[in-house]
Every structure is written in C-alpha cells, then in structure tokens.
Design goal:
By secondary structure, the chain is of the alpha/beta class. Helices cover 28% and strands 23% of the residues. The chain binds aspartic acid (ASP). The site of aspartic acid has 11 residues, from loops.
C-alpha cells in the first residue's frame, strides 16, 4: 500500500447517471447541481484521511445512454486541462455505458500517469438504501492514496481495469465484471491493490487523442442467420464491422456468407471477430468454422470486451493509420485491454 501523508487533490467530474438522479413522474432523471450539494453533506467525505476534492458537475447531467464519442472527448479534455493541478481524477457516470467510456478514455489518454477512476451506482445517493455512497468514498480514496496510473472502473468493492470491464447485471450492486482479466483491487476491511498488475506510465507528457467519427457496427451471428442480412449491412459505408461469433470465434460455413465477408475485406473494410461468450479468447484456427473466417481476412479481437473492441476501432481510425496498420494494431495489446 502506498499511502502518502499530505492530502491529495482529486478532480471529480460529475457527468450524470443514476448516482445523482432524483425521482420524477417519468422515473429517475438527472438533476443539475444535486450531486455536489449532496456530497458536501456526507460527513465521511470531509474527514482528514480523505483526499481534498473539487466537484465539476455538468450543467446538464446526462443519462449515459445518451453518451457519444464527443462526450468521451469532452471528459478527456477536462482531465487534460486539470491534469497538472490534481493528483487523481474521479468521473461519476451512468452505469449503462460506463465501460465504453472507460475503454475509450484508456486509449485516448496517451501517456496517462495518474489515476482516472470511473464510478456510479445502481441506486441514487438520495435513496436510503444505496450503493452510491460506498462507491464514491472508495473511488476517491483509491484515486487519492494509491498509485494506479490507469483508467479504472470502481464498483461494488472491486477496482477493474476500465477497458477490461463490462456491465453484466442491470440491477445487482455487482453490476460490472472483468471477464478475462483479474480485478486490479479489492476493497474489504483493507484496500488491496494488485500492484503487479498495474500498468506503468509510458511517457510523461499526457496527450489526448481526438476521436474521429467512424462508421462501425456489430452483427450478432445466430443459427440460421440469412446471408442477406450480412449483405444488407455490408452495403452501408462501414469502416469496420465486428462479427459476434460463437464460442472460440466460429460462424456458419455458408459459402455466400464467406464470399460476402471476403469481398468486404477486399474493399478495405476492417472485419473483426469477437466471440459472443464474454469469457472467451477468439482462436479461429481451432475449428474449420473459424478457419473460414480467418482465410476470408477477418481479424481476431482476442479476449477484448466488445466495449473495448469498438472503442479501440474508434481510436485507431482516429490516428490516420493505414488499414493494414489498423488491423495489426487491433491485435496488439495497447493498454492492457488484450491478452496476447
Ligand atoms: N441509465 C443510467 C445511466 O447509465 C443507469 C445508471 O446510471 O445506472 O445513466
């Protein structure tokens, strides 16, 4: 444990989500100004063993279902602008797309050397019974007192690598999981961080990569999927298509289907193979039903989450790389998102 005696300074960016929502006739909805006010009334947050924090609350907090890549950039920009002044960053965010934002920021914040921890809750802070308070306190403590220079997601006593996390449960307090990588930390009576798993900073100058809008889509394969469905989606001007395949990365050996994939690859589209099983690492050569995809030019997403695979495509296309470089980089571990 690396605890420091001086009080650290944390920048809290409150973007919206259930954590700061209020009850309305239409259901929970974000309310501007509510979160910062409520935080100031939580006595534990004012304790001397807590870091000092500044809350920047969005004027119009959003339900994270409404987030877009422009919002990822906005968050990254606030971090960049406040980077020198603060020791760590906590982003309060809706759970629906929190793992997409965490994945995107992990790529966009190049040379990150300070903790960026996303958290939120399943029940709002105003409810008597809630998970908001604990998530908030622990995220602040970890950002302030531990050396975790990564984009992380903290939820229900677990610290995950952001780009390994995914939302698995819509109601349980244990909403997130990291199917193919161990948790970076566990909170019990002690806060235990697995320092051997934490990434080392790669440079000292933080650089925020702008994200370009790209056309990316996913197609979930199911038994009997008509090849016309693939044909229709491939008629869109897509930059990349992620095929959500079976098991280790298998799909029907329908020759029409394979021909369409081959033609799309020839045209320059990036086709990515990602298994439907959250706990899986694509290995196309294991079965003939996977080898056909490999031969048609589909690349493997390995054990990346779908959230990481999508946001990594956004990131790589934004770097103005050639298509062959993008394909190569998709299979390289850039921020701990992939087991190679
Ligand atoms: N719809 C909410 C959001 O993602 C759900 C949540 O925060 O848990 O903003």
């Amino acid at each position: 444990m690396t605890r420091h005696s001086a009080r650290k300074k944390i920048y809290v960016l409150s973007t919206g989500g259930t954590i700061g929502m209020q009850k309305t006739p239409e259901g929970y909805a974000p309310e501007a100004g509510y979160l910062a006010k409520s935080m100031s009334k939580i006595p534990e947050l004012q304790n001397l063993d807590m870091p000092i924090y500044t809350v920047h609350e969005y004027e119009k907090p959003i339900d994270s279902a409404n987030m877009t890549p422009a919002d990822w950039f906005q968050m990254g920009d606030y971090i960049q602008k406040n980077y020198q002044e603060y020791d760590g960053f906590v982003i309060l965010h809706g759970t629906d797309t929190m793992s997409y934002t965490a994945s995107a920021l992990s790529f966009m914040l190049e040379n990150l050397g300070k903790p960026v921890i996303l958290t939120g809750s399943q029940l709002p802070l105003f409810e008597t019974r809630n998970d908001a308070r604990e998530n908030l306190i622990n995220a602040l403590l970890i950002a302030g007192h531990y050396s975790v220079p990564e984009v992380c997601l903290y939820f229900n006593n677990k610290l995950f690598r952001g780009n390994r996390s995914t939302k698995m449960d819509a109601t349980s307090f244990a909403a997130f999981s990291s199917p193919n990588f161990p948790a970076l930390g566990q909170v019990g009576t002690d806060i235990k961080i697995r320092h051997e798993l934490i990434l080392k900073p790669t440079g000292d100058q933080l650089h925020l990569r702008q994200i370009k809008p790209i056309m990316v889509s996913t197609l979930r394969i199911f038994p009997g999927i008509p090849h016309e469905m693939l044909k229709t989606i491939l008629q869109l001007p897509l930059d990349a298509l992620i095929l959500e395949t079976f098991g280790l990365g298998n799909a029907p050996e329908d020759p029409h289907f394979i021909k369409l994939i081959h033609q799309a690859v020839e045209k320059g589209m990036v086709l990515v193979n990602r298994s439907q099983c959250p706990y899986a690492k694509v290995k196309m050569s294991q079965y003939a039903t996977g080898t056909v995809l490999l031969k048609a030019g589909v690349i493997s997403a390995g054990d990346m989450t779908i959230d990481a695979a999508i946001t990594k495509l956004f990131y790589l296309f934004s770097k103005n790389l050639s298509h062959s470089e993008i394909k190569a980089q998709m299979m390289v571990d850039l921020r701990g998102e992939l087991t190679v």
